[in-house]
Specification:
Helix content: 40-55%
Structural class: alpha/beta
Radius of gyration: 20 Å
Distance between the termini: 72 Å
CATH topology: Rossmann fold
Number of domains: 1
Shape: elongated
Number of strands: 7
Strand content: 5-15%
Length: 284
């Protein structure tokens, strides 16, 4: 039986990945931050699911979980690691506090690196490994190549995750451990329910109040076209079990994704200015 570790399985994409892998006969070790979420998933998914209770930003807890998985594997290698855990901290970079920025980076970057460092040896990233090396799947975002107003901190984290993934892929070639990226566009998950709350005075008063309202309208207008998490789960399963492109984009708006990434940057700037009322009003 093949075993996979998936981080952040309590809801959304992570839960969908865990469910699909269990349905395909994999032993899944899924990380949750709350014991009750682990108990709920264990009851729903059965004996092929083992909850790991840790926050990816708690390095000691992550490595303790890796030791738990190593013991459970009893000498067998880990087939895959899916780094899915992540958050979206919305806000204007001009106004965000160091604590808000740090929270975004701690989870999406340091937390991902913590999990990678802890579980990579079980995948075969050690000198004396003799089995078949495993694979790492990074759940990134289309936001890792094109930035959006009010989501700057999230963009920074995903841009950086793309660089981390590329560096790791090239470093881990020494051991035969592959690293691939799946970059979803809009997905129907709870991560966005809180993303644009931004109810404090930094955003509800002053020059950015109207653009924020436009941004909320834009997000709401696209809610119905978001991909089902099962789409991402299927792509993750295929990436783990077959030959996968280095980076795969999954988006309900492929044309918009293409335009944002291939049009001249100034032209894209003007698109955002028009959509979100960001054009400067001259005072005569």
């Amino acid at each position: 039986m093949q075993s996979v570790v998936v981080t952040g399985v309590s809801t959304g994409i992570g839960e969908a990945i865990a469910r699909l892998l269990v349905a395909r006969g994999f032993q899944v070790f899924g990380s949750v931050r709350k014991p009750q979420d682990g108990a709920r998933l264990a009851a729903a998914l059965g004996s092929l699911f083992t909850p790991l209770v840790f926050d990816t930003t708690d390095r000691d807890a992550v490595f303790a979980a890796a030791a738990q998985v190593k013991a459970a594997l009893n000498g067998a290698p880990l087939f895959g690691l899916v780094n899915n855990a992540g958050i979206a901290v919305a806000g204007l970079l001009l106004y965000m506090t160091p604590e808000e920025i740090r929270q975004q980076m701690d989870v999406n970057l340091q937390g991902t690196l913590n999990a990678t460092q802890a579980f990579a040896p079980l995948l075969g990233a050690v000198a004396d490994f003799t089995g078949t090396p495993g694979k790492i799947v990074m759940i990134s975002s289309v936001a890792g190549t094109s930035a959006t107003p009010f989501m700057g901190a999230y963009n920074i984290s995903k841009f950086a995750l793309e660089g981390m993934s590329e560096a790791l892929r090239r470093e881990l070639m020494l051991f035969g451990v592959d690293v691939v990226v799946i970059a979803p566009g809009a997905v129907k998950t709870p991560i966005w329910d809180k993303g644009l709350a931004l109810n404090d005075a930094r955003y509800t008063e002053g020059p950015f109040a109207a653009p924020l309202g436009k941004m909320r309208e834009l997000v709401r207008s696209k809610a119905h076209i978001g991909l089902d998490p099962d789409v991402i789960a299927t792509a993750t399963f295929k990436a783990l079990t077959g030959k996968a492109p280095v980076r795969q984009v999954l988006t309900p708006e492929p044309l918009m994704h293409f335009l944002l990434n291939h049009l001249p940057k100034r032209m894209v700037d003007r698109m955002f200015a028009k959509m979100l009322s960001l054009k400067r009003v001259s005072k005569n």
